Amino acid sequence: MARMRMSFDLLNSEADGAQRMLNAIEPGSPLPIHRHKKTSETVVCLRGRLVEEFYSEDGVRVEAVELRPGGPVVVVNIPAGQWHSVRALESGTVILEMKDGGYEPIGPEDVLEL
Fold this sequence. Notes:
Helix content: under 10%
Order of helices and strands: EEEEEEEEEE
Oligomer: single chain
Shape: globular
CATH topology: Jelly Rolls
Structural class: mainly beta
Number of helices: 0
CATH superfamily: Jelly Rolls
CATH architecture: Sandwich
Number of domains: 1
Largest sheet: 5 strands, antiparallel
């Protein structure tokens, strides 16, 4: 399946103490269920509409939160270690993602295969 998302890094340098990026996501873009063990993640919906989905350790969806500008929920904070994924509901959806610390790629143990 084609990747239908594009990121724009907002860091000043690799020495920045936090990660900040814009992420444009189209409906149908595959995004695996994953976690960030060392950092929480804050997601702000700037444009469009999306669902942030939360999962248990065994891959059961336990919560789904819709985000949209001007809606009842615009921002969500995802605790460190929480399994999650995001699904765009409208074309042109753009989010701001922020995490603590420098960039650390997620490993295979941080992707939940169903």
